[in-house]
Request: fold
Amino acid sequence: MPSVSALTQFSNGVLPDTAINITVDTVTPARDITFGTTGNRSVTLNGGTLFLEGDTGTTLMTWRGGSTTAPVTINSNINYSNSDATASATFRVINAFNRPLTFNGDITISGTGARPMQITSNNVITVNGSNAADFLSLGGTGEFIAGSNTAFGAGAVQKTNTSTVSLRSDVTITGGASSYSWLQSNITAGLRISELAASTADRTLTMDSRLVGNVGGNSILQFLENINSTGNLILELKYDAATVQNIALATNATGIVRFAQIGDTTFGSVISGGGQLEKNGGTGTTTLTEVNTYTGKTTIGAGTLLLAVGGSIADSSEINLGTAGSQGALDVTAKASFSFGAGQTVSGFGTINIGTGKTASVAGNLNPGNSPGQVNVTGNLAMESTTATTMELAGSGGVAGTDFDNVNVTRNLGYDGTLSIVSFGGFDIYQAGTYGLFDFASQSGNFDAVSFGGNAMAFGSGIWSGSTGGYNYSLTLANGDLVVGAIPEPGTASLLLGGLALALLGRRKRSSLRSC
Reply:
């Protein structure tokens, strides 16, 4: 197996495939491997495994990118170790000279001690193979491209400078033995998708443990415009312990922040921008303590999203409470009252919990289902004059949330605004049936206007009613039921009237005979 000096320059282009294993024994304090410091040549290392070995008890290897701008591509696997197998082995990659560096092989760091990897780059470093480092430190102002699920290593990540992190694969950061997955200095760090060719695929960055920023600082993870991608960048947070997560998330229109933990977690920083928030994949409670200003959709597909006293999602365009098979809950019991604004839509199948004796109000759109569906409210629900409620009919089976939309309130339901009753999925609403659209302990107020299939209904004596296409339909406010029935045919009506007249005549004749 050939041995190569630590300071040898690989400046002659491509190493042949016959160089299967290259052993670099770093026995001097310099411990540098320098690629192409003269000229502007691309360098590619092919072959099996590049063995690197550092000194005992020191920071082991500095790998410099050279002073040129030509790329360095390492197709070989890399096995890095300390000459003392029980000591820490730190694999340092310094790329300070604007030279792209790509690792296509697998990175193995041997030994029983700590096995961190430190990358400092002002250019692009791409890791397409697996990475066995148990801790990864990312510095510099360049870009780190994760081209494999384990590109970040087998432990936590520390972000010390403003370099951008780009995904070319779904990636999981476990956190390993650390109490966090992502530790960030008081900086703004970029996050995006960067594909080699045009793609519509979503990419997910999963954090098994928590996000940690500088306490009282300004640590921001900013979603950037994707490259060659129209997919969504999903930041999935699975931490479920008591310590508050405190890195601000500045999203964009293709960004999704997904809380997917099994237990409970508290997020103590602001989520802003044009992205979405999801509470999915876990049964736990996610507590938001800050005034969040993101404008995308909020989906609570599992577990509970809880707003603390100071917590807000007032700029979110839609709050969806999940589906029949995966229902979520929005807990606003910390508030004295709670209002969904005029620009917000409440939809889905789940629960809003304001608490007994308190009122949640909807000033925008109330559209149960996805559809159909059911919105349950624990406490009072008040519609407002600006509320536009849409209730869909999808079947004649009589099951709320399946055959028709339903709003179910444990206390008082206050009617107001407009109500549109429409068909879903091509269902023929002009057939006999009863639909319990609203359930409640008590009701008050009235709608300003109600329509059935686009046809205006008239109000009188507590009932909205109308008729179209041979059918009568009526909504009784006192019980929340919509009843649809056929209008009798004219011939049938005449017979009924004739029979009634003969019956009355018979009664009169019998009365006359009895009086004689």
